[in-house]
Amino acid sequence: MSGRKIGEVILDLKNISLSFGGVRALQNISFNVLEHEVRAIIGPNGAGKSSMLNVINGVYRPQEGEIILRGEHFANMNSYKAAKAGLARTFQNIALFKGMSVLDNIMTGRNLKMQANMLQQAIWWGPAQREELEHRAKVEEIIDFLEIQHIRKIPVGRLPYGLQKRVDLARALAMEPQILLLDEPMAGMNVEEKQDMCRFILDVNDQFGTTVVLIEHDMGVVMDISDRVVVLDYGKKIGDGTPDEVRANPDVISAYLGASH
């Protein structure tokens, strides 16, 4: 791991329960995330991992429990509040504008940071002009960081899947988040693409000091890059600790081997 310093609790999830009709997706789940750590959420298919990520960034509202972000209680988190509070995420099914260039897609991540009013932006005058140049400079920095200069003008829909994933990461980074939520960042990638993505995630964590929460199926990746791992199974928490602790947990072993079901 890098030389970054892991800090205090930045995100605390307490007794989160979420139901859809009669189906309990999450049952009384509590865990926390420390500042500057890489925190993984793992579990078999249907364990509730994506539901948990959707609760954190306000897509779903849990029936019970609370989210505490930097000491502030959020009973009614929503996506706008989450973004304003410094949360950004990537999506399992890439949420990019396929007809727009890589550069323009990443610029959409700057929307919340833009102060100029619509009229100023429309006529590209004064503050809007200065602001656009500042935002473009930040976007160019991210493009260099993720090594995608060669595709900056290409429409995203024409890129291979692995590069689209990298652009999705760039768009999230353009928000300058304090906490980056990654929903299966390695899904559908070959070995080389996975290695690149691992390197970028660790660099984001190390160089930008960004706290990372990720869902990932590739256990090798999770155990390599995570500081701590929380394990869900059928909407319940069955393990939480360092990679070594989780690897040795009998409940986790049986869930992954299918012995408990």
Automatic annotation (TrEMBL):
GO cellular component: plasma membrane
Keywords: ATP-binding, Cell membrane, Membrane, Nucleotide-binding, Transport
Coiled-coil ranges from the UniProt annotation: none
PANTHER family xref list: ABC TRANSPORTER ATP-BINDING PROTEIN (PTHR45772:SF1), CONSERVED COMPONENT OF ABC TRANSPORTER FOR NATURAL AMINO ACIDS-RELATED (PTHR45772)
GO molecular function terms listed in the Swiss-Prot or TrEMBL record: ATP binding; ATP hydrolysis activity
Name of the protein described by the UniProt record: ABC transporter
Residue stretches making up the ABC transporter domain: 11-259
Keyword Membrane: yes
